[in-house]
Design brief:
The protein has 483 residues and is an alpha+beta fold. It is built from ten helices and twelve strands. The chain has a five-stranded antiparallel sheet. A five-stranded mixed sheet has the order 7-9-10-12-11. Strand 4 and strand 5 (146-156) form a beta hairpin. Helix 1 runs antiparallel to helix 4, helix 6 (277-308) packs across helix 10 and helix 7 (321-338) runs parallel beside helix 8 (357-373). It is rod-shaped. Mean pLDDT is 80; it is low at 469-483. InterPro entries: HAMP_dom, HATPase_C_sf, HATPase_dom, His_kinase_dom, HisK_dim/P_dom, HisK_dim/P_sf, HssS/ArlS-like, Sig_transdc_His_kin-like_C. Residues 191-243 form the HAMP domain. Residues 251-464 form the Histidine kinase domain. This is histidine kinase.
Length: 483
């Protein structure tokens, strides 16, 4: 007995389907053989009756002295081997027959009434007295337009039934052989499915215990092969995610420790006293700066957590793109000045998009900040905004910095991933930007070449509705900046 499981289900279903199909074919085959044999006998008797009817309706005279001898001639000329020919009255009484037995008996089988109805009568059953299987075919004999007698042929079908029984046995034997072969093949088929699944299950159980270095081995095909490849890929991604997470923990620990060390050091220094106002002011400035840095790191982690839990709420409105980019430039102006980087703005005055102004500003601050971080000194960063098509705008941040290699370009939007860990940061900025853009039903596209710079393009839906009047921010005049 096969134990419960997929193997058992496959074997039983396969056997059931083949058995039902085989049974249906054999039943149809046996019925067709039986019909063929019986119809062959019927057609042969039918031809004899037809010939007798056509001949004697011309020459046989009803009644009279010669009718008895004419009936005997009919019996003699149209008798069949192994078949009894009877001449009946219209009431079904036997007048004479080729056997000569029981001439006074009355036939009550269904073939006689059918014949009297004007058609050939046919009956298959068991003969009374002998219990022998027989077939009887009857036809009214018409002489000079008058129904006179009933011709009835009766033959045994025992031999036919015996042959049909033998054919049935042979068919059953063939069916049993086919089912035996099917059982063997069904086990092979079940094993070809179940064994790989057992292997996959065993490896998956190891993965569930944290052994993500395990891999499903074997050249499996079709859906099972896809399942094995998917699980292997999942394990690989988990290992990679764990590595990124470990790198993030290490990086964020360093990022947090550096400002905390500065804050702690200057706090202790200031508490000890004895410093002039300038030194005290410097210490307080450093504490404030490092506190802001800590707040920025914490807010970035909180934003990422909200996005992961789908708890980020957007205040959708109409945003003037030029005003948004000007505010972005004002926020990063000082940082760009330190590296003598020029910030250039190319934007249509009447370009408006639908979105949350604060969150979109967060996106572009991150993009421009990254551009400044990886740009060379005395270079330029271009912020451009142009219609992309009739219902979208393309806002791009383009630099001529160090660029991103092709291998890193595929992973740079992954959470916690950093192209250059030495530059600091959490590795969440671009991942957060990507998700914020997608929340605005937009797209973020990266185009970069190592050593030639990077362009990040944000596609956002535009709107024709103008925002409430708001003054554009005034930029600080600077000979090295162009807007």
């Amino acid at each position: 007995m096969i134990k419960k499981g997929m193997r058992r289900q496959i074997v039983l279903h396969y056997i059931l389907v083949v058995f039902m199909a085989l049974l249906l074919v054999e039943v149809i085959f046996l019925l067709a053989i039986r019909t063929y044999y019986y119809d062959s006998v019927y057609q042969k008797i039918n031809s004899y009756i037809t010939a007798a009817d056509e001949y004697y309706q011309t020459y046989l005279v009803p009644g009279g002295a010669e009718s008895s001898s004419q009936m005997q001639g009919l019996l003699k000329h149209f008798k069949m081997d192994l078949t009894e020919l009877e001449i009946l009255s219209l009431k079904g009484d036997v007048i004479t027959s080729t056997t000569g037995f029981q001439p006074d008996r009355t036939i009550t089988t269904s073939d006689v009434p059918e014949a009297l109805g004007g058609d050939f009568g046919r009956w298959v059953g068991r003969q009374a007295g002998t219990n022998e299987s027989v077939m009887a075919v009857s036809k009214v004999l018409t002489i000079h337009g008058r129904d006179t007698y009933v011709l009835r042929y009766m033959t045994s079908v025992e031999r036919i039934n015996s042959d049909l029984f033998n054919i049935t046995l042979v068919s059953a034997a063939i069916g049993a052989a086919v089912m035996a072969i099917v059982v063997l093949f069904s086990f092979g088929l079940a094993n070809s499915i179940v064994k790989p699944l057992n292997n996959i299950t065993a490896v998956s159980a190891q993965m569930a215990k944290g052994r993500f270095n395990m891999r499903i081995k074997g050249d499996y095909k079709y859906e099972i092969g896809d399942l094995a490849s998917t699980l292997n890929y999942m394990a690989q991604e988990i290992v990679r995610s764990n590595q990124i997470k470990d790198d993030f923990i290490s990086s964020i620990s360093h990022e947090l420790r550096t400002p905390l060390t500065s804050i702690k050091g200057w706090s202790e220094t200031l508490v000890s006293g004895g410093y002039d106002p300038e030194e005290t002011k410097l210490g307080m400035s450093i504490i404030s700066k490092e506190s802001d840095r800590l707040i920025g790191l914490v807010e970035e982690i909180l934003d990422f957590s909200k996005l992961q839990q789908n708890e980020m709420k957007l205040n959708i409105g109409v945003v003037n793109v030029k005003v948004l980019l000007q505010e972005t430039i004002l926020n990063v102006w000082a940082k760009a000045e330190k590296k003598r980087i020029r910030l250039l703005l190319e934007c249509d005055e009447q370009l408006h998009v639908k979105g949350d102004a604060n969150r979109l500003k967060q996106v572009f601050l991150n993009l421009v900040d990254n551009a400044i971080k990886f740009s060379h000194e005395d270079s330029s960063i271009v912020l451009s905004a142009l219609p992309h098509n009739s219902h979208e705008a393309a806002i791009a941040v383009r630099d001529s910095g160090i660029g991103i290699s092709e291998s890193h370009l595929e992973r740079v939007r992954d959470r916690f991933f950093q192209v250059d860990a030495l530059n600091g940061g959490t590795g969440l900025g671009l991942a957060i930007s990507q998700q914020l853009v997608e929340l605005h039903n937009g797209k973020l596209m990266l185009d970069s070449e190592l050593g030639s710079g990077t362009q990040v393009t944000v596609i956002l839906p535009v709107t024709d509705r103008l925002p409430d009047a708001e003054p554009a921010p005034e930029l600080q005049p600077d000979p090295d900046a162009e807007i």
